[in-house]
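Sequence in, structure out.
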Amino acid sequence: MDPLDIARWQFGITTVYHFLMVPLTLGLGMTVAILQSMWVRTGHEKYLRATKFWGKLYLINFIVGVATGLVQEFQFGMAWSEYSRFVGDVFGAPLALEGLLAFFAESTFLGIWIFGWGRIRKGVHLAALWLAVIGSWISAYFIIVANSWMQHPVGVELAEDGRPVMTDIWAVLTNNTAIAAYTHTLFGALVVAGMFLLGISWYHLWRRRHDGIDKVDQNGRVVVGEADAPGRDKADHGVWIWSLRFGAIVAIFGFIGTVGTGDVQGKLMYEQQPMKMAAAEAACHTGGSFSVLSIGDPGGSCEDVETLIEVPGVLGFLGTGEWGADMPGITDLEPQYIEEYGQHLSDDPLYGANAGQEIDYVPTMWVTYWGFRLMIGLGAIVAAAGVVALWLTRKGTVPQSKWIMRLAILGIVAPFAANIAGWIFTEMGRQPFVVAPNPDSTGIDGVFMYTAAAVSPGVTAAEMLFSVITLTLVYGVLLIVELYLLVKYVRGGVASSMPELTHHDDGPDGPDDGSTPPRRDDVLSFAY
């Protein structure tokens, strides 16, 4: 087995799993901050309950996200030491800023928010949460700056040993590829958070109808009831209907944002990585038609690709902004890459068993083609679901249908899958490069690195296999723990995040209106 292949699988598995937490942390943090802002401004009970409930889920996800994220940077030294040497002078600054400034501030203010309930003034407590959320956004930006440099190297010069040396940190931090990717990621995170709120809130509103708490009158309008159970009162209904409709709006807004920023990314991709753009469309030949459906060999051979449905003119608009413009196809681009970068890897020992092998400049076409379409298609489905949800809940509750409720819960998965498909497309579409070369007009000539040269030369296949199996098992355990905690607190509703609702207001700890600490018998009492 080739250590390079195993190293790529390891990085893919751990990174995809970690990225499941990232968009939810970015998007849900903002929604919780808005909810708490509404509570501080209005004093309404439903906003306090919503803040506590969604805040609990936010913290669970944040904690597991931190644990899984630590492995990512360790992997650079474990499996990708040559890559680390090559990019180290550039990555040092943004990753240091991410760790020392953004992540440190994020963790500090989040700690103040966790332990500050009832101990500091409401305004100060709210500010701590907003600063923690902003810290997470800044943290994400520095990470994306590093990743975007791999897509579009800027702000460097080549040293005598062939390594890039950063000469302009401002160029690195303001890389147009980074700005486009960052805004696209943030909007994608809002879609994730919006659907998370929508699906879970739908479940709880359905439960209230199923249990006979809420009914509808002859006009179909909700008649809110109360049950003799902790937290299942009229304020509970307000939490879920407001969260559901708010989540639908956030998801729709997020999708519109991803479309706009995605269009910018497409045009940058056409300039900077034309082969990735061509592979995303299975565009074997130069033209301007957008492929709606193409079939062919999963191995990605142009000879076997057949386009069944296409729309003339759209592809040129996506790449250049000009309707009907021709975009270069794979068969035209491949000779250009061979002429510029060679047909075979060199005999340098750095390439190990891959030395001298022929280079395939075409990314795995079925991954890029379907990854691109899954990203767009699932996002559109979520936006449509948000519109439908707003319509169906216009009278204050959800239909009694169990199947619609299950679809709403299943819909939570869609934006996660769209985000993952987008990142797989971004990374796989760059192959065979780990640092992609750009045309002379948009990048720096000579700054690129083949993935085959990036893997650690001293690592054996057996060591890599042990590593990937171990990390996969550990991540599997973490996944089980997170899902268990999320499902437990989702099913428990607001009462599971506010145990004080199960006790009388004249108990030893008093009411939880934000003025007193919570009871110590909460399983996650440390969180508030």
